[in-house]
Amino acid sequence: MTAFNPKRGLIIVNARICGPLGEVVARLALDTGASTTVVRNALLVVIGYSLDNLPKTVNFTTGSGVEAAAIVKVEKLQALGLERSDFSVIAHTIPANAAIDGLLGLDFLRNHILTLDFQNGEITLIQVPTRKS
Amino acid sequence: MNETTIDDTMTLSEIEKHFDGEWILVEDPELDRNNEVIRGKVLCHSKNRDEVDAVAMRLRPKRSAFLYTGSVPNNIFINL
After folding, report:
1. B33: nearest CA in chain A?
2. Distance CA A105, CA A117 (A)
3. Which residue, A107, A84, A116, is CA-closest to A11?
4. Testing the interface with B: which of A12, A25, A103 to mutate, by most B Cβ within 10 A?
5. What percent of chain B has pLDDT over 90?
6. Which residue, A40, A99, B32, B59, is the most exposed by fewest CB within 10 angstroms?
7. B25 and B42 in contact (C-beta within 8 Å)?
8. pTM for this entry
């Protein structure tokens, strides 16, 4: 169980992101409207990814338009008790006034049960039990 | 922007008390099970996020955490 402020603002999740040169804890907004997880460029550089020569291979649609963006496969992304390895994220220059380091999107949450309890300010993410055929 | 020379680690409550409304880069953070920082060494702090990013990219700490001790202003609506 992870706590959040149910009264106002974004749902902020602390995510531990690992790369070839280190690891960083980032503030990601839980966003079930985002198909893909997004991480601030600078954080990816800090943990060892070079973004300079990375081709911008995806079109990233935001509320303000469509931008080309690069995909980075991070070694690990761990949040809400779940760890994903070799996980692809979109590298993006998140506006500084957003007070976040990126978005935790649906690709991270898939195949799990996400519960947002706005009464008690609690998030739970649990693995779906394997169905027996 | 302020790079610190504080060698001692600070607890999260100490960090929040000292650096209100700022971005803070913490080295070697001790984390709880939800990746919340319990304590760590403050490398720099600023109200300007870009300045903290610049220090982080220069120093490249092996283990670090970014904290924000402010809140999103009521007149800003985020819709990426």
Report:
1. A81
2. 18
3. A116
4. A25
5. 75
6. B32
7. yes
8. 0.90
